[in-house]
Amino acid sequence: MSCDLTAGQVVYTNKAHCRDCYRCLRVCPVKAIRMENGQAYVVGERCISCGTCIRECPQKAKTFRNDVERASRVIASGRIVAASIAPSFAAMFNVWQQKRLASALRRLGFAYVGETAVGAYHVAKETAQIVNDSKRSHICTACPAVVSYVERYYPEKIEYLVPLVSPMLAHAQLIRQRLGGDAKIIFIGPCVAKKSEADRPENAGLVDCVLTFSELMEWFEREKIDLMSCEESHFDEEPEGDSRYFPLVGGSMRTASLTTDCLAENVVSVSGFEEIHEVLESTGDDVPMIVEPLFCRQGCVNGPALPALDNSYSRRNKVIDYAGTFQGCVPTEASLKVDLSTGFKSWTIDDTEVSEEQIREVMERIGKASAENQLNCGACGYASCRDKAIAVIRGMAELEMCIPHMKRLAEQRTDRIIETSPNGIVILDEHLNIISMNPAFRNFFMCSQALCGKPISYLMDPDPFERLASGKEETIEVVVNHPNYNLVCHEILYPLIGEKQFVGIFVNITRMQADKKKLDQLRGQTVIQARELLEHQIHMAQTIAKFLGDSSAQSEGLLDKLMQMAGDESSGSESDGRYGKQWIRDTYTSK
Predict the structure, then answer these.
(1) What pLDDT does 526 receive?
(2) Torsion of CA 227, 232, 235, 239, to 10 degrees
(3) Mean pLDDT (whole number) for 564-576
(4) Backbone dihedral angles phi then psi of residue 11, each to the nearest 5 degrees
(5) Could you tell me the maximum CA-CA distance found in the chain, to the nearest angstrom?
(6) How far is 341 from 552, CA to CA, in rounded Å?
(7) Which region, left, alpha or beta, applies to residue 283 given φ > 0 means left and ψ of -120 to 50 means alpha?
(8) Are residue 90 and residue 47 in the same domain, yes or no?
(9) 231 and 317 fall within a common domain
(10) What is the mean pLDDT of residues 304-329?
(11) Are residues 166 and 73 in the same domain?
């Protein structure tokens, strides 16, 4: 499979499926897509692994790194392997499937199966303590896509990130504390960004493999594990409090008991890139608030690797029903023995400095030098023509991505072909008035653009066009002599039905007709000359025959005379046969 996957990269393009539609670029919140030769490549250092392009690509050309083989190797290692299941699993499975999931995972080889909500509870409680101890703004860090977004594109907001690990990493530490440091841990959830989070150097060794729910179903199918055939069973541990609500918007605030009021002034729960972008623009010490951001709209129940069997609101209700039916155990005051603290760092995005002169040059090349031509239509994937020009300069976009520009070029190319055609082309309206005519037509019929709007009858017999307009004929192809212009044309006439117009194409065959006439004349002269030659040859033959006849008669007379003389002489000397009649005859005839 041809792709742009590089070391450590999670989201990439399957180039065989990419179809030059710019959909991924339009939806990518950070424009981490580079267009090259009409194909969209994911730029690893700019990508935050949110998975938006995966969800939105109509051709399924965007995908993520598949780690099923890696998970199989972890199981085959012989170590104790634990599964950490994200609380959003309830959004994917029906009630009867939820009760059999733990058994199915054990059939895959997991020795321990727990809910990530266990770690979520401890992260929420630690968050509440940090928030209560500091009267400043805080941005919760459970969502790895949000953390990556802030680190790369809002480094000035890093100081507001709550310095705690995510529930996945917290649960991994708790499992290792219970099972021992040699245990292997595989996280399973709806999130692609979790793969990138586990790959971060500071998190090395905490989670051995991250699978999405779609990969889990692939693994089940490969191992021929059917949930229907599995028995009902429980997870190996039970989360505390309301932590099973964690994947929903407002879930972490409820788990942390910071608020249950969606109208609280100091707590803002947001989901989706647009809301996160707006709230980051507002976050600061001057407006202290707690921000609970989830990059996917409606939270983790709309993760990019969660099979879309139903809509996000139905999945949300499934989680609510599951959390309400299986309420977590009563929280204990036992002290946490693992360190959940972490730090964050800014990422340097290599954005080449762009000058106004460079931008103006690109704008001119795509015909957008003037403000009225800058449509900012967004068809290319960028919010404005200026943003697109900057992307071109930085090597992230191509000039040809501008749809209006390419349309204009196509129209100009078509106009150029018509203008330079050696054939005359005229377009008439439904009333057979001239709309336009190219230079060749004007030259043929010795007219100017001033005739536009006039009936075609000003120039020629309109009968062929009238027959076309009557609808009796779909296309007319005739040879017409226009003596007023010393012109003979092969004419092709047809209607533009949708536009209620008629097109005439006139091919000048005057020279061809003249050459044909000359050829016909030459052929006629050749026949006459051939006939005269034949008659001359017959006359010559007759004359020659006459001469030959006269010559033969004279020869015969001479022969007779010679024979007579020979007879007279032989009578005097018969013994001498040298001059006899037979000798004379033989001698003469031999000559």
Answers:
(1) 66
(2) 110
(3) 56
(4) -100, 135
(5) 180
(6) 141
(7) beta
(8) no
(9) yes
(10) 89
(11) yes
Do residues 140 and 258 lie in contact, with contact meaning Cβ atoms separated by under 8 Å? no
Q: Please check whether residue 335 lies inside any domain of the structure.
A: no
Cβ partners under 8 Å of residue 460, min gap 6: 445, 480, 482
Q: Do 305 and 255 have their domain in common?
A: yes
Q: Helical H runs in 180-302?
A: 193-199, 213-222, 251-255, 273-282
Please name which of 25, 54, 57 lies closest in space to residue 40, comparing C-alpha atoms. 25
Q: Which of 65, 91, 115 is the last residue of a domain?
A: 65
Q: Indicate if 410 and 320 belong to the same structural domain.
A: no
Contacts of 516-524 spanning 24+ positions with Cβ under 8 A: none
Domain boundary among 389, 420, 451: 420
| Within a domain: 443 | yes
Kindly report, residue by residue over 398-441, the tens digit of the pLDDT: 988 888 888 877 767 778 888 899 999 999 999 999 999 999 99
Buried b (16+ CB within 10 A) or exposed e, 229-257: ebeeeebbbbbbbbbbbbbbbbbbbbbbe
Instruction: Examine the domain organization and report whether 45 and 117 are in the same domain.
Output: no
Q: Which of 300, 291, 293 is nearest to 51 (CA)?
A: 300
Say if residue 496 is in the same domain as residue 526. Answer: no
Q: What's the pLDDT at 591?
A: 47
CB neighbour class for 31 (10 Å; exposed up to 12, middle 13-18, buried from 19):
middle
Total tally of structural domains belonging to the chain: 5
Q: Which residues contact 509 (CB under 8 A, 6 or more apart)?
A: 479, 488, 489, 490
Does 281 map to a domain?
yes
Backbone φ/ψ region at 224: left (φ over 0), alpha (ψ -120 to 50), beta: left
Indicate whether 312 belongs to any domain.
yes
Task: Classify residue 455 as exposed, middle or buried by CB count within 10 Å of its CB (0-12, 13-18, 19+).
Answer: middle
Task: Name the phi and psi angles at 58, rounded to 5.
Answer: -70, -25
43 within 8 A of 62, measured Cβ to Cβ: no
Residue with tokens 């595989």: 186
Residue type, 437: M
Q: Number of C-alpha atoms within 13 angstroms, CB side, residue 463?
A: 4
Give the span between the Cα atoms of 250 and 319, in whole angstroms: 13
pLDDT exceeds 90 at position 525: no
- Find, among 319, 120, 124, 320, the residue nearest to 237 by Cα: 120
CA distance 274 to 293: 11
**What is the CATH number for 482?**
3.30.450.20
* Euclidean distance between CA atoms 155 and 158, whole angstroms: 5
Q: What is the span of the domain harbouring residue 397?
A: 350-420
- Whether residue 542 is predicted with pLDDT greater than 80 in this model: the reply is no
**217-247 per-position pLDDT tens digit:** 999 999 999 999 999 999 999 899 999 999 9
Residues 503 and 526 in one domain: no
Model confidence, pTM: 0.72
Between vectors from CA 462 to CA 461 and to CA 468, what angle results, nearest 5°?
140
| Helices (H), ranges, 421-456 | 439-444
